Amino acid sequence: MYYLGLDIGSSSVKVAIVDAVTGKNLASLHEPKNEMQIISHQNDWAEQDPEMWWTHSCTAIKRIIRKTAIEPSKISGIGISYQMHGLVVVDSKGNPLRNSIIWCDSRAVEIGNMAFSELGENKCMSHLLNSPANFTASKLKWVKDYEPELYDKIHKFMLPGDYIAYKLTGQICTTKNGLSEGIIWDYKSDTNANWLLDHYGIDPCLIPDIVSNFSNQGETNKEASNQTGLPIGIPITYRAGDQPNNALSLNVFNHGEVAATGGTSGVIYAVTNNLSSKESSRINHFAHVNYTKENPTVGKLLCINGAGIQYRWLRNHSVENSYENMNRKASKIAIGSDGVAVIPFGNGAERMLNNKNIGTQFCNLNLNKHSHGHLYRAALEGIAFSFVYGMEILKNDNAHIHVIRAGNDNLFRSEIFANTVATLIGHEIEIYNTTGAVGAARAAGLIDGDFDTFGENITKNDHVMTYMPLKIKGPYLEAYQYWKKELELILKNK
Would you say 240 and 84 are in contact if contact means Cβ atoms under 8 Å apart? Predict the structure, then answer.
């Protein structure tokens, strides 16, 4: 038997099939070949057609069935991971009324900020663990204010993963985890935050029925079978947003465990059972995949916009044709890059810097002394230092860090980057070769709640290596303090 996993991103739809017993990944692929279109009618807007996600999901499922040559009737469950915070609105027939307003759209920022001010920081942080900010509820309020005729036709609103589940099953439902991602979940009352919707003038009846994220959430119907090639009756047994799902994929479930992502942007997702926070603007909190009222595990999420994009920019504007060549030259340079410091925040406003946009800065270059290798090492160190800086914010906000687990992506393939983070944080970093689609596929079998066996299979199938903190910490600490001083001087002048 097998499980199928879908990961609905904003750039592509990924799909994977795993063995139901061992969890071994049999095949993974993505659709389309090039990135999906993001529509931007105005600056800072970002929309996608939900039907585009469905079309690519159908194509990807058909392709992977052909690639693996498995019998589709032996797929016993489907798991779904998806881009967080998006808004999909449908009419009474289940048809989308407009494009989805996706996660990176910022049109509702002021709506959320005003609600935070009017409702009060204490109430929002104690009940929502977040500001309403630019999340799903605030985006729905934007539709109500600026597209009232369309709003009046809304039957239900959904998150992106809810929509794909609906297309597979014909049933409209969501999860408390998903509502927490949209900042519509009240942790104190363990129910919908109807008081926030009332403040926005939104009818709570627009919320779909709630199902557990590890449960039978509906089964593939005839229409979905015709479009995907899957048999009728396969249950969807799991769904979660991409960052909680990434943590699941890395066996991060418990207090003190951290999932890190080092892609275009960086993400630190620390699981904690402490529901208090004093960081209303720099850290987001979401119900983790194994959250229950009795076991209130939440993910403290801190995003670093200027991460892998910084190193990619250097590659694209240098004589090197690969990260491997860059890493090799960087390895010949001493810790601290002989005084060169790269402040990597050149990908828009940084939430962890209180939404300041300070750009990328190359500091203390000596044209007679420094080479490409110095720039490469300083960039890797600067990105690593930004992760450490973010982890310090998390630690000061009641997060504990016992172990860090990360995917085997570009940044964590660099020994300079990984050793710098591990040594300064003082904790090992475990590297795993997995993806969100693989994690979602495996999670389709987690109805029994056996997270221990699930984690053991991840270690058995995916563990690549572990970076241990280096014993000689002094040079790393000195370089970090030097970098931090440069950052604080820049922030002071902004």
Answer: no
Domain ranges of the chain: 2-244, 250-428+468-494
The two tokens of residue 424 are: 């300064």
Asked if residue 315 lies in contact with residue 388, where contact means CB atoms within 8 angstroms, the answer is no
CATH of 250-428+468-494, one of 3.30.420.40, 1.10.510.10, 3.30.930.10, 3.90.1140.10: 3.30.420.40
Q: Is residue 32 reached through a cis peptide bond, with omega within 30 degrees of 0 on the bond before it? A: yes
Domains 2-244 and 250-428+468-494 share a fold: yes
Which of 343, 328, 411 shows the shortest CA–CA distance to 373? 328
**Helices 415-425, 323-330: inter-axial angle, 10-degree rounding:** 60
DSSP class of residue 434 equals -
Which of 125, 78, 474 lies closest to 276 in space, CA to CA? 125
Give the separation between CA 43 and CA 301, rounded to whole angstroms.
26
- pLDDT, one tens digit per residue, over 412-467 is 989 999 999 999 999 999 999 999 999 999 999 998 778 888 988 898 889 999 99
Q: Which CATH class is domain 2-244?
A: alpha beta
Q: Please name the residue that has the structure tokens 């005003």.
A: 114
Q: Coil, helix or strand for 326?
A: helix
Of residues 431, 436, 410, the one with CA closest to residue 25: 436
What is the chain's mean pLDDT, rounded? 94
The C-alpha R_g of the chain, in whole angstroms, comes to 22
Contact (Cβ atoms closer than 8 angstroms) between residue 228 and residue 57: yes
Question: Does 409 have pLDDT greater than 80?
Answer: no
Q: Is pTM, for the whole model, over 0.90?
A: yes
Summarize pLDDT for 240-264 with one digit per residue, the tens: 999 999 999 999 999 999 999 988 8
